[in-house]
Amino acid sequence: MSRREDSFFPNLEGRKRLDLIFKLVFFSANLVGLSVLLLLLGKIVRDSWGWLDMQFITSFPSRFPEKAGILPAIYGTVYLMIITALFAIPTGIAAAIFLEEYAKKSKFLSFIQVNVYNLAGIPSIVYGILGLTVFVRWLNLGRSLLAGGLTMGLLVLPVVIVTAQEAIRAVPESLRHAAYALGATKWQTVRYVVLPSALPGMLTGIILALSRAIGETAPLIPIGALTFIRTIPKSPFDSFTVLPIQIYNWTSRPQADFRAIAAAGIVVLLIVLILMNSIAIFLRNKYQGRIKEI
Amino acid sequence: MIKSGKDFGRERGIQLILAVAASFSVLVTAFIIISLFEEMSGFFREVSLKEFFTETRWSPLFNPPHYGIAPLVAGTMLVTVVAMIVSVPLGLASAVYLSEYAPDKLRRLIKPVLEILAGIPTIVYGYFALTFVTPAIRAVIPGTNVFNALSAGIVMGIMLIPMISSLSEDAMMAVPMSLREAAYALGATKLEVAFRVVIPAAMSGIVASFILAFSRAVGETMIVALAAGSTPKLTLNPLESIQTMTGYIVQVMLGDTPFGSIEYKSVYAVAGVLFFITLSLNLVGNRIVRRYKEVY
Amino acid sequence: MSMESVITIRDLRVSYKDREVLKGINLDIYGNKITAIIGPSGCGKSTLLRCLNRMIDLADGARVSGRVLLQGEDIYSPKIDPVRVRFKVGMVFQKPNPFPKSIFENVAFGPRINGYKGDLSALVERSLRLAGLWDEVKDRLTANAYTLSGGQQQRLCIARALALEPEVLLLDEPCSALDPVSTMRVEETIAYLKERLTIVMVTHNIQQAARVADYTAFLLNGELVEFGETSRMFTVPKDKRTEDFITGRFG
Ligand SMILES: Nc1ncnc2c1ncn2[C@@H]1O[C@H](COP(=O)(O)OP(=O)(O)OP(=O)(O)O)[C@@H](O)[C@H]1O
Ligand SMILES: [Mg+2]
Quick one: pLDDT at residue A5? Predict the structure, then answer.
């Protein structure tokens, strides 16, 4: 096969070298993410060093950084999440059940579906303006926890719907057939067969959605979450602040000490997020175990 | 089992409730459009469309005020382009590594890191931009403004890496194994398989990931509100203080602007443009993603 | 015609994780002949074939031991790069897998990455002619390969492999996804090709082995039960299991 030797020049060494170089380049791209993560966490821990103490956790905001604390923001965040969850979880799961189990394939269904996907991509600040217009002004809820919670609920609704849909879709068709064969109605099938097996997946989605909501700042700015709040909100109609808003306010001040308590606030926020995600993982593992037993 | 009439009514009732919940999402979209439109129409009674789209100054507080959206759009694009310059190569490279090179063990290590990166609140990224990246840039390039598009853009780009990486990786994973085998059997190296087979075959999904990331960057608020400044300006210099559309909205909303004033209404006009741009991008991006999911 | 062994397989063992699927294969593949590998599903035919061009390296958790000599050179020796082996040994798969590119680009793929310095168009034409596809596609070389029928796509894949002028061509059930007419065309192509190169073909179809193969290897549960000239093996099988298999009593 001499002709072959004459006409092909595979240059294997060169190509292998290029392959290796690019492999390293591609790998390093992933290191960038990791290093930024470490850098960011390191920077925040260092900035907040010495500022994060019980006094900070249990105090109200103040003009003096050394006296300022984050208590109302913690309460605000917790209350806001309760309202967001109470609104978005049932609505989102109900919508997902309808889209996956009830709706016939139709133009309208695919319109709803496309709509859900695109809602997920609308900038959060636009949700804030929606909340300001509809909840604060039209429904006259004022700059209240309720207005904020509902706005946040709308924001995370698409996330809840999409993840719940995926969880429902993952339930094997054979389980449904088994239920129907026993004479179960559609709703009984959904209620006693589909939902229990979709639950772990849904839980993950819900925690994902709430994690997103906890960290969101922009939609609450038009709603008018306050930063100088002297009381803990007592009813859904009270004014409020949340962790990210408080952090934003402190960060946007030029004094170094305020930056430091902003960093301390970020640490609190990240701890809350880590806790939530640990709970999600714990619940998921627990429920997965139970379903396997059945 | 014979179903009683009561059972039947119950089933219908439940179905109705579920249908209402599903339609609710459409209602949300409708309300976004209605609420934007209402105040926008008020705004355009006082400011002509021509001024809005052709005037090159945005200075609501001057006398007379100017309402040309161009500087805000330009500011947004400047930050977005910087973000894309950072996130596209890094995100794509990360995706190629994960889909073509990474051994399973490493994949299981890298993916969670990217997920954590994606889950960090934007306010934290904003803090990082302002207190770390900006001083670093100013140390390298003295004279850089404290508020600048570069810092916000770089940090936003890092924030977008996981999004591009995971969407592109999905697209590459959807390329059938048989195509890779065909190329390997012809004596291709991994790099050649990636560049000549996998990436071209996954191109539409990869482009969709860029589009969706672009849209995300256009709508991103907290990073630019903290780090990019509040100076509406037509400039290509990323070292200057600028203002984005989202940045303007935040600025007005934080002030004591009375309902019904022209400044208040201008927010809706800006938000309307923002909504229109991001919605168009998302429609295109999501459509491509759904299409390639159907192909394989 | 010489009866030299182009590929010599000695005590070849392959395991996936802990399961051994090839249990010490010894086999000679003769030059310019067609060797068929037959056997029931899961017996290790594809695995054996993939050992001959080191495609097996791509399978997760596959461990190979033993020797495979290609023209006297052990392709599993650490000195040897699998990429070079694949450059010399072509492969065609069960399901046609053309790239989503034009017909021309499909055939030109191998020559391009392997630095072909000759006339590329001529090489593409020659390869397509060898695969018996030229007349059908000569007017639409720029059309996407997916516009071809399944049988045409499979012959395109053969042309694609031939463009590297390989010494050996491996075919893994090349006709199993094709209709009878397309199958016939591919079989004709294969029969014609053995003038120029050595062919190893896995097939599920015993009649096909009888029609085209000079030699047949019968594999069962990872062991080589019988190997010999096809005409002899199909008339007087030495092993009872071979007889059962070719008469359709199992498998
Ligand atoms: N990548 C892999 N990982 C683990 N096991 C594998 C892998 N590939 C094949 N096997 C197993 O090895 C055995 C042999 O597989 P092989 O594909 O070689 O069989 P085959 O004879 O080609 O079968 P068929 O006629 O169905 O194509 C089978 O039991 C199969 O399950
Ligand atoms: Mg096989």
Answer: 61
Chain A within 8 Å of B286 (Cβ-Cβ)?
A: yes
Contacts of A266 (CB under 8 A, 6+ apart): A44, A48, A247, B123, B124, B127
Task: Give the domain ranges of chain B.
Answer: 5-46, 59-295
Q: Quote the mean pLDDT of chain A.
A: 88
Q: What is the CATH number of the domain that holds C148?
A: 3.40.50.300
- Ligand 1 contacts CB of residue C63 (under 6 A): no
CB B186 to CB C90 under 8 A? yes
**pLDDT score recorded for residue B293:** 60
Task: Count up the domains in chain C and report the number.
Answer: 1
Report d(CA C169, CA C194) in Å as an integer: 9
How are strands ordered across the β-sheet holding C168-172?
C89-92, C168-172, C198-202, C34-38, C215-220, C223-229
Average pLDDT rounded to a whole number, residues C1-16: 86
Q: Which two tokens stand for residue A62?
A: 């103040």
pTM equals 0.91
Q: Which atom of ligand 1 is nearest to the CA of C59?
A: 1
pLDDT class of C149 with cuts at 50, 70, 90: very high
Q: Tell me the chain B residues in contact with residue A263 when contact means C-beta distances shorter than 8 Å.
A: 127
Ligand 2 ion: residues within 5 Å (CB): C 46
Q: Is the peptide bond before B64 cis (omega within 30 degrees of 0)?
A: yes
pLDDT at C1 over 60: no
Say if CB C82 and CB C147 are below 8 A apart.
Answer: no
Question: Are the CB atoms for A218 and B221 separated by under 8 Å?
Answer: yes
Chain A, chain C: beta-carbon pairs less than 8 Å apart = 31
- Nearest CB partner across the interface for B187, out of C86, C99, C100: C86
Whether the Cβ atoms of residue B145 and residue A16 lie closer than 8 Å to each other: no
Whether the complex's predicted ipTM surpasses the cut of 0.85: yes
Q: Where are the beta strands (DSSP E) in chain B?
A: 58-59, 66-67
Nearest atom within ligand 1 for CA of residue C48 = 18
Instruction: Test A39 with B35 for CB contact under 8 angstroms.
Output: no
Q: Domain containing C238: what range? A: 34-58+82-246
With a 6 Å cutoff on the Cβ, whether C185 touches ligand 1 is no
Residues 6+ apart with CB under 8 A from A66: A257
Give mean pLDDT, residues B202-218: 95
Nearest CA in chain B to C158: B182
Q: What radius of gyration do chain C's Cα atoms show?
A: 18
CB-nearest to B181 from C55, C84, C113 is C55
pLDDT reading at B294 higher than 80: no
| DSSP three-state, residue A51 | coil
Give the span between the Cα atoms of A174 and A196, in whole angstroms: 15
Can you list the residues of chain A whose pLDDT is less than 70? 1-5, 227, 287-294
In A11-165, beta strands by DSSP E: none
Which residue's C-alpha comes closest to atom 5 of ligand 1?
C16
Contact between residue A81 and residue A156 where contact means Cβ atoms under 8 Å apart: no
Q: Say if ligand 1 is within 6 A of residue C90 CB.
A: no
B188 close contact with C: CB closer than 8 A: yes
The matching CATH number, chosen from 1.10.1740.10, 1.10.3720.10, 3.40.190.10, 1.10.540.10, for B59-295 is 1.10.3720.10
Tokens found for residue C57 = 């390296």
Q: Which of B34, B31, B58, B36 shows the shortest CA–CA distance to B47?
A: B58
Is B161 strand, coil or helix? helix
Three-class SS state of B254: helix
Shortest distance, CA A183 to any CA of chain C (angstroms): 41
CA A76 to chain centre: 17
State chain B's mean pLDDT as an integer.
92
Asked if C110 and C98 count as a contact pair (C-beta separation under 8 A), the reply is no
Q: Which amino acid is at C243?
A: E
Q: Which ligand is nearest to the CA of C93?
A: 2
A-chain residues near C113 (CB < 8 A): 15
